[in-house]
Amino acid sequence: MNKIYLSGNLTKEPEIRYTQSGKAFVRMSIAVNQGYGDKQTTDFFNLVAWEKTAELCAKYLSKGSKILVEGRLKNNNYDKDGVKHYAVDVIVESIEFMDRKSDNKQSVANGLESEPADDDDMPF
Q: How many CB atoms lie within 10 A of CB 96?
């Protein structure tokens, strides 16, 4: 089973992009705090949302927005200029916008396509 839940704040503005085949995606980063007081630490995770979820994230989220994400981990290993790079992304399967905007919580539930159909559309 590959499942992860994260709650935290976005570290920068989400920017929507499109694959060569026209599928929308957004890459984001989330800061997750754990512990308290002097023992508090922060971890950072890369998020990738696809299709309708990406469009909603780009429209309604901004730097500092508090979110709850359900997703799965994906390894992204690639060569660039002869150098091997390793990265782990969280592929967003569902997301809840936790900030109070007009006293409404926005939520994007399961059922929306959250990743491209094949690896040829992957932007990394």
A: 15
Contacts of 101 (CB under 8 A, 6+ apart): 60
Three-class DSSP category at 108: strand
- Buried b vs exposed e over 45-62: b needs ≥16 C-beta within 10 Å? bebbbbeebbbbbbeebe
The answer to whether 62 and 106 are in contact (CB under 8 A) is: no
Q: Is residue 56 a contact partner of residue 108, using CB atoms and an 8 Å limit? A: yes
Tens digits of residue pLDDT in 77-87: 989 899 999 99
Task: Please state whether the predicted TM-score (pTM) of the whole model is above 0.70.
Answer: yes
> Environment class of residue 31 by beta-carbon count within 10 Å: exposed (0-12), middle (13-18) or buried (19+)?
middle
* Contact present, 29 and 88 (Cβ < 8 Å): no
